[in-house]
Amino acid sequence: MENRLIAIVIHHRQENFLKEITTALRQLKLPVLIVDDASGGAARNTIAEVVQSDANIDSLELESKKGRGACLKRALVKAVNDGFTHALTIDADMTQNIGDLQKLIDESEHLPKAVISGCPSNTNTASDDPKAEYIKKLHGLLNALNACSLEFQDTTCGLRIYPLDETCEVINQENCGDGIDFDTEILIRLNWRGTPIKWIDIAPVPADRPINNNFSQENTALLISKMHARLFAGMVKRKPKEAAMNFINKHFIINRRD
Question: Cα–Cα distances in Å, from 225 out to 60, 155, 210, 232?
Fold first, then answer.
């Protein structure tokens, strides 16, 4: 069955690049849903202008600010209810390279049951900030622990294509976070259920590009900490012995004798 793909743009007061992003998505002949996290003001006017410019662009506005994860959950459930099979998610702040969109789309056509997740070759933030670098490494270690896999890469990149049936099943059955923690949590919970994750190298954002991502470091650290605690509790409730043995067998036992 051919993929029915929609692009979902998550937005909160980041209207500067909105026209550029939606133009690129429409050039790929994708319908677009802009999800606005209660920006109001000038942003609302820009969104209205973009929507009016193309019948294949729609918008969904949250009445009060709920967070990135809440926006994604609302949009993904709406997409599957509207008959789409897959959703490409991208942020409105241009922290991802739109030149790589076709690579993800092609891979999703080849692997329709997998999450296709962008993985930047480098970032603008961690290398010059020892604290950020430490947090990134700790985050990666906890991802490996909770997923029982060393294969997880950058789980904070929001450029992805989700298979909607599998993803919305997790959303409907699990208490995934409403903030930036959603991006990591949904991947690990999908991994637990056997959904493959394909990592695609994407180009880094130019270092001189101004970025407005609306996330405070302190609030992000708190959300991520709570998320890892939820996931660890869930991992322990799953068959911990079996998961641990699979992890050890896969990554550490090199020479086995049957």
Answer: 29, 14, 28, 11
